[in-house]
């Protein structure tokens, strides 16, 4: 039975008060170059302006909050007669004078964002050390079916985008993907005046998904005037040309009681197209090396040599650019122009054995040789992306303290890219020796060797176009709300209430992709009695099959291409909706012994819904299928199951859930004295009731202590945070295929059914942090620093399993898994693939932030100097899959992933009234390919599945330098330019088990040196 809310808070208060001396805390310092609230809000003189700016300098927004750029802090009580400005920082719902919240929060103001000079705010934020594993237009470019291509979504702590809550003005935004993640590209970015990055658990304040933290985009709600930003640029390699135009206008009417704001944005990035086949980087990039793992069979590792070797110039010997015979007596014969046979040049001095193997090579790679058919470099490095956003806010002041408002946001993001050239067939084709496209010499060789067919592989480089994927996401979001102040129990309280309706539609269209069954039928040709070349399969021939010649480099018959790759390719249409109603209040409840006890409380209702429809060839035909006229029935295609495309087999699904929640947060001043300093206790509790996952509650208990030591504060917080299962996990579109599993020593054929799991439980996290903050001490004016330790444990992590893993877990005694399969009913055996609450995550480390700002006049140098640095040290990032036969894996420092041991962002700026110069360093540390590998060269232990041996396990980090400048032509016009990756640092090779994308765009800059220039106009 759950503890009632008041008792929960009492228990938290007692526990936290007892632990106060051990876990004190304070909020983070303001970033250099921004206006920060002073500890004592006294009017600053011009001489003090750079070291102790006045709170009054920050304009209040419509909710009485100030755009100070403060990191988790707020102003103390101002002197009598001074204007009162309250700062609300996103790590807490409390907005009160003197409140210093314990949850670490990093803030970037509009000035910080402008200095970065990037066409998309996402790219600026993704460089912050705490944001690891974010997805943008350089990630997932090798994917056809994932559905996340083109999303600009943020991830904190490497815990994934689904565990980071992204907000707009403290409000949830409808997901741009069925997983519920938002797309920052759909936000009105020109109006953003501050971004708060809450690097601690925030579920007690904002609800589900904030396990890693929250990112809150705060807009200028009362913007007045007109501003314009125009920007353009390209890379050193004369590609990825891009341009941005943004404009905003705001004006007050009716004695400034009615305020209207409008903004519009258009951005186009042309992307970096693939060069096609071969070991050639696009447009002169020379760093691509076809890197891969060469993996020896486990049984051979008793010889003291490593199992894994990282190789460059990997040659996939199971196919060639225009075709290769891959086994039998003719193995090693390739085909060139016009189908002419030639002896294929294997790397590693390899010689074909006739069995499919090649001497001196380790399946499936040789090193070097003929690399013309390589496909890895054919993936786009960056997507072509177009962003369009329209936004308006209309507010009306009922009186000086209360307003009603309406906002509307329309955002559309279109992208397209090529995941790979051709459509490689890895020695899995059978060519009959009577195929009329074969040269006479090969037909004769077949007869001489007494064979009627041979195995064949090809990169299909003859295809007239590469696969190209076109996702389009369109958001429509409307908010109606009111905020202001009211009197309650003799005290003044602030409130805000709103209702939102958000819709997002996603259309994914894939072009120039083949249908597997039609391709197989078209390449199996035979000469008819009348001499014509026709498809061998009579059913295929009767349904329109046109023969395709894949023996060498020959022009593709347009009719054959239209048959195997019809113009109506894979399609997916997804519609999501989000309805939210929310009410929030905060204020001083009553006076305590050390100051006013402040409270924030509220309630929220949210409903999420989605439907997804795939095309008839991918999804199969059922009652929910759309009009199938564009996908006519074909006897060769599976009309029920679907899965007919080479890739991009989208299926149908739908589902919804709702949640009701309430919260209470308290700030209790505990100490306020000249001897002991000031301390406060922060408590929060949020019960939530999901229509699917049931009841769960989150809570937070933290404390801050402003010590008697000049400028020194301590802070600490512990919280329980959750992530409820999303629509995709609950209601995954069903897919049914045949598979085999091993059970009780036998191979069993099963029907593999992939479905959602409505019995999933929420993921639960325990989030702990402790920090030390030094804020502008008298002995170091202008200097601030902080260090925060974090420890996050997530249990009941939702993860998917393979059919064999489910069988093994059932045999091991997991009854929940056993309920998803039947293995003792021959002819009707099945395994249902679902997500289960099996895995766990555990990450720990610390964040460091420091800043210094100095007026250089004292040194006889004009202008101001600003230094700021942020760094994250990942001590551990441990993943336990919960699968039988596996062990927890350590991800910290594995540079094939997204969590290096160290990640740093530092900047140095000089500016005066006219000119500003900024140098930025981005760095992450050297690492390894995997922490589970054992590095050795000789006398290696025998490899195991969990701990393979490897020849070289080192993967270098990288340092990137950026330089920018701006010049104020006059008070309204600014010109600026920026060079990113000044030294054109190449990405490190990222070996895979196949010769594919072989780079890691999550960590490394894969675009290269980029030039940008623009102007900003403010009036």
UniProtKB/TrEMBL annotation:
<dbReference type="InterPro" id="IPR039426">
    <property type="entry name" value="TonB-dep_rcpt-like"/>
</dbReference>
<dbReference type="Pfam" id="PF00593">
    <property type="entry name" value="TonB_dep_Rec_b-barrel"/>
</dbReference>
<keyword id="KW-1134">Transmembrane beta strand</keyword>
<feature type="signal peptide">
    <location>
        <begin position="1"/>
        <end position="27"/>
    </location>
</feature>
<protein>
    <submittedName>
        <fullName>TonB-dependent receptor</fullName>
    </submittedName>
</protein>
<dbReference type="InterPro" id="IPR037066">
    <property type="entry name" value="Plug_dom_sf"/>
</dbReference>
<keyword id="KW-0732">Signal</keyword>
<keyword id="KW-0472">Membrane</keyword>
<feature type="compositionally biased region" description="Low complexity">
    <location>
        <begin position="29"/>
        <end position="76"/>
    </location>
</feature>
<keyword id="KW-0675">Receptor</keyword>
<feature type="domain" description="TonB-dependent receptor plug">
    <location>
        <begin position="101"/>
        <end position="214"/>
    </location>
</feature>
<dbReference type="InterPro" id="IPR000531">
    <property type="entry name" value="Beta-barrel_TonB"/>
</dbReference>
<keyword id="KW-0813">Transport</keyword>
<keyword id="KW-0998">Cell outer membrane</keyword>
<feature type="domain" description="TonB-dependent receptor-like beta-barrel">
    <location>
        <begin position="493"/>
        <end position="982"/>
    </location>
</feature>
<dbReference type="GO" id="GO:0009279">
    <property type="term" value="C:cell outer membrane"/>
</dbReference>
<comment type="similarity">
    <text>Belongs to the TonB-dependent receptor family.</text>
</comment>
<dbReference type="InterPro" id="IPR012910">
    <property type="entry name" value="Plug_dom"/>
</dbReference>
<dbReference type="InterPro" id="IPR036942">
    <property type="entry name" value="Beta-barrel_TonB_sf"/>
</dbReference>
<feature type="region of interest" description="Disordered">
    <location>
        <begin position="29"/>
        <end position="84"/>
    </location>
</feature>
<keyword id="KW-0812">Transmembrane</keyword>
<keyword id="KW-0798">TonB box</keyword>
<dbReference type="Pfam" id="PF07715">
    <property type="entry name" value="Plug"/>
</dbReference>
């Amino acid at each position: 039975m759950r503890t009632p809310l008041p008792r929960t808070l009492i228990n938290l208060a007692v526990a936290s008060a007892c632990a106060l001396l051990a876990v004190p805390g304070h909020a983070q310092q303001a970033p250099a170059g921004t206006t920060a609230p002073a500890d004592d809000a006294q009017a600053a003189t011009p001489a003090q302006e750079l070291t102790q700016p006045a709170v009054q300098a920050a304009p209040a927004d419509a909710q009485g909050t100030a755009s100070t750029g403060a990191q988790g802090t707020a102003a103390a009580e101002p002197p009598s007669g001074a204007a009162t400005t309250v700062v609300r920082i996103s790590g807490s719902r409390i907005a009160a004078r003197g409140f210093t919240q314990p949850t670490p929060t990093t803030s970037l103001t509009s000035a910080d964002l402008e200095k970065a000079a990037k066409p998309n705010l996402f790219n600026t934020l993704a460089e912050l050390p705490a944001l690891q594993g974010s997805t943008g237009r350089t990630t997932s470019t090798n994917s056809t079916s994932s559905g996340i291509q083109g999303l600009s979504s943020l991830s904190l702590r490497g815990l994934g985008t689904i565990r980071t809550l992204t907000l707009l003005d403290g409000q949830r935004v409808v997901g741009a993907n069925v997983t519920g993640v938002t797309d920052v590209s759909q936000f009105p970015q020109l109006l953003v005046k501050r971004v708060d990055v809450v690097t601690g658990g925030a579920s007690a304040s904002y609800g589900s998904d904030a396990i890693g933290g929250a990112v809150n985009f705060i807009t200028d709600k009362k913007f007045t005037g007109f501003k314009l930003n125009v920007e353009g640029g390209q890379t050193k390699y004369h590609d990825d040309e891009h341009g941005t135009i943004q404009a905003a206008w705001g004006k007050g009417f009716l004695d400034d009681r009615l305020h209207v704001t409008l903004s519009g944005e258009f951005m186009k990035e042309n992307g970096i197209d693939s060069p096609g086949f071969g070991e050639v980087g696009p447009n002169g990039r020379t760093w691509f090396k076809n890197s891969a793992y060469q993996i020896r069979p486990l049984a051979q590792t008793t010889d003291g040599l490593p199992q894994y070797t990282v190789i460059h110039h990997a040659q996939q010997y199971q196919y060639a650019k225009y075709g290769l015979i891959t086994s039998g007596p003719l193995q090693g014969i390739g085909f060139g122009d016009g189908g002419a046979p030639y002896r294929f040049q294997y790397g590693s001095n390899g010689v074909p054995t006739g069995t499919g193997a090649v001497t001196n090579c380790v399946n499936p790679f040789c090193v070097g040789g003929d690399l013309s058919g390589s496909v890895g470099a054919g993936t786009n490095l960056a997507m072509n992306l177009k962003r369009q956003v329209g936004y308006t806010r209309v507010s009306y002041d009922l009186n000086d303290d209360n307003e009603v408002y309406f906002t509307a946001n329309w955002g559309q993001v279109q992208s397209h890219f090529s995941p790979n050239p051709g459509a490689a067939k890895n020695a899995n084709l059978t060519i009959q020796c009577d195929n009329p496209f074969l040269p006479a010499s090969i037909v004769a060789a077949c007869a001489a060797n007494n064979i009627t067919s041979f195995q064949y592989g090809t990169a299909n480089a003859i295809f007239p176009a590469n696969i190209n994927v076109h996702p389009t996401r369109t958001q429509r979001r409307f908010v109606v709300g009111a905020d202001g102040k009211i009197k309650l129990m003799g005290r003044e309280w602030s409130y805000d209430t709103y209702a939102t309706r958000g819709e997002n539609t996603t259309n994914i269209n894939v072009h120039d992709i083949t249908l597997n069954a039609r391709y197989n039928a078209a390449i199996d040709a035979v000469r008819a009695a009348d001499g014509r070349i026709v498809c061998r399969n009579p059913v295929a021939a009767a349904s329109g099959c046109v023969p395709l010649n894949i023996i060498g480099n020959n022009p593709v018959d347009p009719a054959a291409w239209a048959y195997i790759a019809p113009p109506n390719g894979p399609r997916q249409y997804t519609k999501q909706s989000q309805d939210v109603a929310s009410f929030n209040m905060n204020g001083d409840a009553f006076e305590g012994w050390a100051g006013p006890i402040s409270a924030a409380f509220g309630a929220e209702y949210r409903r999420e819904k989605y439907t997804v429809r795939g095309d008839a060839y991918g999804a199969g035909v059922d009652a929910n299928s759309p009009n199938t006229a564009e996908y006519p029935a074909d006897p060769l295609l599976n009309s029920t199951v679907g899965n007919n495309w080479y890739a991009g087999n989208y299926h149908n699904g739908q589902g919804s859930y709702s949640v009701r929640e309430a919260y209470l947060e308290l700030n209790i001043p505990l100490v306020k004295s000249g001897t002991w300093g000031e301390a406060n206790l922060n408590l929060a509790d949020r019960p939530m009731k999901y229509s699917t996952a049931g009841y769960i509650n989150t809570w937070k208990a933290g404390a801050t202590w402003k010590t008697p030591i000049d400028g020194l504060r301590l802070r600490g917080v512990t919280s329980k945070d959750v992530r409820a299962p999303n629509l995709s996990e609950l209601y995954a579109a069903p897919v049914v295929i045949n598979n085999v599993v091993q059970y009780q020593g036998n191979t069993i054929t099963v029907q593999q059914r992939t479905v959602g799991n409505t019995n999933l439980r929420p993921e639960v996290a325990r989030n702990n942090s402790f920090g030390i903050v030094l804020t502008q001490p008298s002995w170091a004016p202008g200097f601030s620093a902080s260090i925060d330790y974090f420890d996050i444990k997530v249990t009941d992590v939702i993860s998917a399993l393979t059919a064999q893993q489910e069988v093994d877990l059932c045999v091991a005694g997991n009854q929940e898994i056993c309920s998803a399969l039947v293995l003792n009913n021959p002819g009707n055996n099945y395994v249902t693939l679902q997500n289960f609450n099996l895995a766990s995550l555990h990450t720990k480390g610390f964040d460091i932030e420091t800043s210094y700002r100095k007026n250089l006049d004292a040194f006889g140098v004009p202008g101001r100097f600003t230094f700021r640095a942020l760094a994250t040290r990942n001590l551990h990032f441990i993943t336990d899959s919960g699968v039988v036969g596996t062990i927890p894996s350590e991800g910290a420092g594995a540079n094939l992933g997204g969590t290096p041991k160290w990640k740093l962002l530092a900047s140095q700026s000089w500016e005066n009234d006219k000119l500003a110069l900024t140098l930025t360093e981005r760095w992450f540390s050297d690492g390894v390919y995997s922490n589970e590998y054992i590095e050795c060269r000789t006398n290696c232990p025998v490899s195991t599945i969990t701990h393979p041996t490897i020849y070289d396990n080192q993967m270098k980090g990288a340092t990137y330098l950026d330089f920018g400048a701006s010049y104020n032509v006059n008070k309204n016009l600014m010109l600026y330019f920026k060079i990113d990756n000044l030294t054109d640092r190449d990405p490190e090779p990222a070996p895979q088990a196949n010769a594919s994308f072989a780079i890691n765009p999550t960590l490394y800059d894969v675009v290269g040196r980029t030039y940008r220039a623009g102007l900003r106009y403010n009036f």
